[in-house]
Design brief:
Helix content is 60%, strand content 10%. The chain is an alpha/beta fold and 628 residues long. A hairpin with a 2-residue loop joins strand 4 and strand 5. Bound molecules: adenosine-5'-triphosphate and magnesium ion (MG). The site of adenosine-5'-triphosphate has 16 residues, from helix 14.
Length: 628
């Protein structure tokens, strides 16, 4: 009954091969490198501060064995004053450490985040098809915070506490070797326990982070889909799913807490027992006169001073493990391949004068325009036995021509148009723009040549003007006015509170579907592209507005090479010729009237009566693109 209540999709790589936490964390080095001087200085300062705390017991020893034993109050005051100085110095140095790391680490976090964002922008659409948005959001927020916390705290303190423990042990052993050895006895069992703990904790930490990603996805989808949730009364099932996910996360967090409690228990208990034993043995030795009282005091206070460094190891390890998992998750995105469609690689068959346009349907040797030759496409995540969405599309749109693309719903029109701006790359065949192979053009060149308006108009949280001028580089006020006029959007835009400078999109004015569609169209035509791809651009307009847009659009189309996906005869009439997409290929090309007369499927699509189309599976609108 809960159609919506399934766990959000995890990225395919969410169970990566486990490797050591250290190796994961080392990958952060390139980001930390620029601030390494500060970080090392801060660590050195912290080591000094921490070692000062180890000098305090030695001063105590001097006070007990010297002035106290001799009954000289002046010496006691002197010693007390020195202790006070040491305390203040320690506090001051720790403060200095904080100050040293705060700013550079904020910078490291920002750099990590920028890098992730840049990567997300560059990753192909097929990557975004696969990954749940919440998983990406949580990586950019929660995980990066964990990383900054790790760099600020556990990284330094594992080093500092390690150094302090070493120095402390040396002091203990030199004070009294036998007592020192007794205190060190728990080290070996503790190390074994820690390594077992580390492996278990890392798994739990990874699971918790993934679950936070799932939760983020649900929250994001419920907020974006609030109208569906409310309109269909799905709030209870959504809440149930949310509760299930929070419950899972809570279980994982409790497991982490239990693991931490166990290891922390051992880490505190074993040294405590050792200290107790050393105290008994030491007291006996003092009573026998084999050990000075001052030495015992110094010995025990050194041991006590080491308690915090030892105790903290448990949660420092835990935090480091969490950070290692966050690093893994971070680099899963950064390591995702930038697609089959990478940089231009002008191979031998992709030279500019490779002009034959060798598709069977290309009659002439003219290389201009937009040519599809034997184009094959299969979605990367399509099941292996399914036929490819496009299998051998041959279509030639002459320079300056407007071609309408007609086909049943789900026949692959959107898919075909998505190949031109290289949102996906064909899995076979080739596409040429004015005779140049698409794969031989850089992405920037493609963007400069091709403009698109998608089925679902997406507006960003920005002003109308910014949304429209996104359509090209260096566009001016005049381009904006012209584009708005072509899309018949100038009327409603000037009626907005601040005209074209009104904020729209998610955090601004809500526009109607038709208004959004016209802004998306304005964006597509703003940059006067050579190639214009429109996916059903007028579907949301009333007949009157549609006629006005078409009249204005005709002028734009006169100067571009255009491919327009159309469902209605009125839109089809904008085009010089029409191509019918059926069964993954172009089944017929001709003028509207020719096809209407000669092609039964086309006639059916245009009049809505033909049973030929009944075989294709209807698909709810708006599930293909990932745009909203
Ligand atoms: N991102 C995707 N991953 C896998 N399959 C997809 C994806 N997008 C679309 N498809 C599948 O590809 C086929 C063609 O979809 P496409 O969106 O191109 O159809 P269309 O002709 O544009 O339909 P409509 O007229 O409804 O817009 C459909 O069967 C669809 O399920
Ligand atoms: Mg479509």
């Amino acid at each position: 009954m809960d159609a919506t209540a399934s766990t959000p999709a995890r990225p395919p790589s969410s169970e990566p091969p486990r490797h050591s936490a250290v190796r994961s964390l080392l990958r952060l080095w390139p980001f930390v490198r620029p601030v390494r001087a500060r970080l090392f200085t801060a660590a050195a300062v912290a080591v000094i501060a921490s070692c000062i705390s180890l000098v305090i017991p030695l001063v105590l020893k001097w006070i007990v064995d010297g002035p106290v034993a001799a009954g000289a109050p002046g010496g006691v005051w002197l010693g007390g004053g020195f202790l006070l100085f040491l305390g203040v110095a320690e506090a001051g140095l720790f403060g200095l450490r904080r100050w040293l790391v705060a700013r550079p680490l904020a910078g490291v976090e920002a750099a990590l985040r920028e890098r992730l964002y840049a990567r997300l922008q560059r990753l192909p659409v097929s990557f975004h098809d696969r990954w749940a948005s919440g998983q990406l959001l949580s990586r950019a927020t929660t995980d990066l915070q964990l990383l900054r916390m790790f760099l600020a705290f556990p990284l330094t303190f594992l080093l500092v506490n390690g150094a302090t423990i070493l120095v402390g042990c040396a002091i203990l052993l030199t004070q009294r070797f036998s007592l020192g050895l007794m205190l060190l006895a728990p080290v070996v069992p503790l190390m074994i326990l820690c390594s077992v703990f580390e492996a278990k904790y890392a798994l739990a930490a990874r699971r918790a982070l993934d679950q936070v990603g799932d939760l983020t996805t649900v929250i994001e989808e419920s907020v974006l889909g609030i109208r569906i949730v409310k309109g269909f009364g799905r709030h209870r099932s959504q809440a149930r799913m949310f509760r299930r996910l929070t419950h899972e996360l809570r279980t994982t967090e409790l497991r982490k807490a239990r693991l931490l409690a166990v290891i922390w228990g051992f880490i505190t208990l074993l040294p405590e027992l050792a200290i107790g034993a050393a105290l008994v043995l030491g007291t006996v030795q003092v009573a026998d006169g084999a050990l000075s009282a001052g030495t015992l005091v110094a010995f025990l206070s050194t041991a006590l001073a080491l308690r915090w460094p030892v105790d903290s190891i448990g949660f420092l390890l835990a935090m480091s493990n969490e950070a290692a998992m966050a690093t893994d998750r971070y680099f899963e995105v950064l390591d995702a391949p930038l697609a089959e469609a990478s940089d231009p690689s002008p191979g031998p068959r992709a030279t500019a004068d490779d002009t034959d346009g060798s598709g069977p349907c290309s009659g002439s040797g003219d290389s201009g325009g937009l040519v599809f030759s034997g184009v094959e496409f299969r979605y990367p995540d399509a099941p292996g036995d399914a036929p490819p969405t496009l299998c051998g599309v041959d279509l030639r749109i002459a320079s300056g021509e407007t071609m309408a693309l007609v086909g049943a719903t789900g026949s692959g029109k959107t898919t075909l148009t998505a190949l031109v701006p290289r949102l996906y790359d064909p899995t076979g065949g080739r596409i040429t723009l004015d005779g140049r192979d698409l794969t031989a053009l850089s992405r920037d060149e493609v963007r400069g040549l091709v403009s698109v308006a998608f089925e679902e108009p997406t507006l960003f949280s920005a002003t109308v003007a910014e949304n429209v001028l996104m359509g090209g580089a260096d566009l001016q006020e005049a381009d904006l006015r012209r584009a708005l006029a072509v899309a018949q959007a100038d009327g409603f835009v000037s009626a907005l509170p601040q005209g074209p400078h009104t904020q729209v999109g998610e955090q601004g004015m809500s526009l109607s579907g038709g208004q959004r569609q016209r802004l998306a169209l304005a964006r597509a035509v703003a940059g006067r592209p050579r190639f214009l791809i429109l996916d059903d651009p007028l579907s949301a307009l009333d007949v009157h507005t549609e006629a006005l847009v078409e009249a204005a659009l005709r002028q734009v189309l006169a100067t571009t090479t255009a491919l327009i996906v159309a469902h209605r005869p009125s839109t089809v009439l904008l085009a010089d010729r029409v191509a019918l997409l059926s069964g993954g290929r172009i089944a017929a090309v001709g003028t509207h009237h020719q096809l209407l007369r000669d092609n039964a499927e086309y006639a059916g699509l245009m009049s809505g009566t033909d049973p030929v189309t009944a075989g294709s599976v209807p698909r709810p609108r708006g599930t293909s693109g990932g745009t909203r």
